[in-house]
Design goal:
506 residues; Aldehyde Dehydrogenase, Chain A, domain 1; 2 domains; seven-stranded mixed sheet; five-stranded parallel sheet; 22 strands; binds 2-aminohexanedioic acid
């Protein structure tokens, strides 16, 4: 069945892809094998790019940029519109490939492709709205305004967990902004990257714009390090771990380039005593176990009012134990596998540490004995003193740590007590409580929700967070500005040279 998807997406004809890799090819360092995490079996091997391929691709992106930047933005929007149409047509296949390669359940695989379609639609509208401001000049017969101009080739580094959408957020915006992109995807999801990029590249090339969408698949020390050091990329947009972001941020800063970082999260949901508990539980379950806990927006900590804690945890435990785990492509499945054996080891390690640190296992905690990389959705209660050091770390797995609070400011302090600042949520029916959470003394995260969970953000808002999450904003709102250069222009249409600040020089 997997071959059917590969065939229909044109991957079998792709010169990089070897559908049935031999044992010796699978060991060849010039290739990476993409495995199905639900079975641990290979799907296909992909040939990696080397330094020479890097040079060809980046030169191509620079040459294409020179032409693309002069195409009127609304016309660039038409190209993105055609790309969105192609993603619409191929959504079922591409969604299935996402499920196959990274283990997302079918609904989430489809949702991911929808996210790319949505941002492409957003970008089409944006292509007629790259507005600059005009400001009154202090000098007579002068006009002053600012304009937004294309920036250059953008290097896009993405993680395995959103192998299509995070590239979409970047590439679709960059394209209408007049930039070309060079995408370095995760080596855990190269097939989705090849298929996704080929769709965009094919449409753009057919419409007379080759080279706008570049792709480089390779080891970090061959591709990603080169990209971050390369001054031909005025912007590097990187999504992934805080550890990776600290390296990328530093290297790009050394050459005074721009980086847009969207890194880890350690997101909490606060449930106050007056909350609609049914609503809160449904939201915590989706955000806690969805994508098997492998979203940067996953709920990792639950901070629940002490008066309702036992009842609420019991409700959650019931839901957690009835979740259907299994083949991601089975419509009934709600939780698929983790990405690989290492992820399972991190899960097991975190659960072990939590117990050593005084945590109480409520449900889950074990690897599931079957092929692939499945683990049980897990709830662990922190000891009464609310101290559980492992909960301060982001483990990319479905583990929910439970803490209790007495008053709101204590809960907010706990929400803000981690190194990252991506997403947060509060469940309450009180306006006063809700507004306090959203006030300057409230959540310190880039995303703060009321009566909605921490994950599953719409594309229309700016997406990203503070502190070790990296500070970058991608996707909607005015995130496009990161992909352009701002130019302030002053025009003298009089015949006298007037100096600003009233300076006389004669
Ligand atoms: C990520 O995990 O890197 O808000 C992105 C969400 C998705 C995006 C997650 N729209 O959960």
């Amino acid at each position: 069945m997997s071959h059917q998807v590969l065939r229909e997406l044109g991957l079998l004809e792709n010169p990089r892809v070897v559908a049935e890799p031999s044992a010796s090819l699978a060991k060849d360092p010039a290739y990476v094998v993409s495995e199905n995490p639900a079975t641990g079996k290979p799907i296909a091997a992909v040939r990696l790019d080397d330094a020479a391929a890097y040079e060809r691709c980046v030169t191509n992106a620079c040459d294409a940029f020179k032409k693309w930047r002069e195409v009127p933005a609304p016309e660039r929007g038409l190209v993105v519109r055609a790309i969105a149409e192609e993603f619409r047509r191929l959504k079922p296949l591409l969604g299935e490939l996402v499920s196959l390669e990274v283990g997302k359940i079918r609904q989430e695989g489809l949702g991911e492709v929808q996210e790319t379609i949505d941002i492409a639609d957003f970008a089409v509208g944006l292509s007629r709205q790259l507005y600059g401001m005009t400001m009154p000049s202090e000098r007579p017969r002068h006009r002053m305004y600012e304009q937004w101009l294309p920036l250059g080739p953008v290097g896009v580094i993405t993680a395995f967990n959103f192998p299509n959408a995070v590239w979409g957020w970047n590439a679709m915006l960059a394209a209408v902004c007049g930039d070309t992109t060079v995408w370095k995807p995760s080596l855990m999801a190269p097939l989705t990257a090849i298929a996704s990029n080929a769709i965009a590249d094919h449409v753009a090339t057919q419409m007379g714009h080759p080279g706008v969408f570049g792709l480089l698949i390779g080891a970090d020390n061959v591709i990603a390090e080169r990209m971050t050091k390369d001054p031909r990329f005025p912007l590097i947009s990187a999504t992934g771990s805080c550890r990776m972001g600290k390296i990328v941020g530093k290297v790009v800063a050394e050459r005074l380039g721009r980086s847009l970082l969207e890194l880890g999260g350690n997101n909490a949901v606060i449930v106050d005593k007056d909350a609609d508990q049914k609503l809160a539980a449904a939201a915590v379950v989706f955000a806690g176990v969805g994508t098997a806990g492998q979203r940067c927006t996953t709920t990792r900590r639950l901070i629940v009012h002490e008066s309702i804690a036992d009842a609420f945890v019991e409700r959650l435990a019931k839901a957690y134990t009835s979740i259907r785990i299994g083949d991601p492509l089975d419509e009934k499945t709600l939780v698929g596998p983790l990405i690989n054996a290492q992820a399972v080891a991190s899960f097991t390690h975190a659960v072990g540490l939590a117990k050593e640190q005084g945590g109480t296992l409520v449900v889950g905690g074990k690897r599931i004995e079957r092929e692939g990389f499945f683990v049980e959705p897990t709830i662990i209660r922190a000891p009464a003193n609310n101290t559980l050091p492992i909960a301060m770390e982001e483990t990319f797995a479905p583990i929910l740590y439970v803490f209790t609070f007495k008053d709101l400011d204590q809960a907010i302090a706990m929400n803000n007590s981690v190194a990252q600042g991506l997403s947060s949520a509060l469940f309450t029916d009180s306006i006063r409580t809700g507004e306090r959470f959203l006030s300057p003394a409230g959540s310190d995260c880039g995303i703060a929700n009321l009566n909605i969970g921490t994950s599953g953000a719409e594309i229309g808002g700016a997406f990203g967070g503070e502190k070790e999450t990296g500070g970058g904003r991608e996707s909607g709102s005015d995130s496009w500005k990161a992909y352009m250069r701002r130019q302030t222009c002053t025009i003298n249409y009089g015949s006298e040279l007037r100096l600003a600040q009233g300076i006389r020089f004669d």
